[in-house]
Amino acid sequence: MGKEAKQVVSVDLEKLLGMLNAALAEEWLAYYQYWIGARVMEGPMRSEIEPELLLHATQELNHAVLVVGRIIQLGGTPILSPQDWFKVNRCTYDAPVDPYIEVVLEQNLKGERCAIKRYQEIADFTNGKDHSTHQMAVQILNEEIEHENDIEDWITDINRMKEEFKKMRM
Length: 170
Known about the structure:
Layout: H1 3-8, H2 13-40, H3 46-73, H4 85-88, H5 101-126, H6 131-169
């Protein structure tokens, strides 16, 4: 980290790097959870939701790029081994062993809600103390909130479609 940058960052750097490495691990797991879930899911609205899940996956990967860049800027070392992701992550990875679309969406929703908490914590921790990390955390937080909203909307749409189908069968 540059000389001037070190002077303007007034946080516990080790704690922040730990938070960022945990976020990095969670982003990689979120990327894969979205990507593989989109590929294997089955059920109503699959063709409409699959490309959106793949877009979410790409956005999670972009978050990882931002986080790893910031870790390096702060003089830290990003997690180097995927085996270590599970040692530091708080957001779980749920394999889509049941590929039904609602199950996959609920798994992703759980992950998004965890990510929202993670980035809110990072934003709060760095607010007024590390403007670059704070700005990055808020940017990612806003996208995670958008993802949560998308997933909630899809679940609502599927439930409404199922109710309409039930009415038609009566």
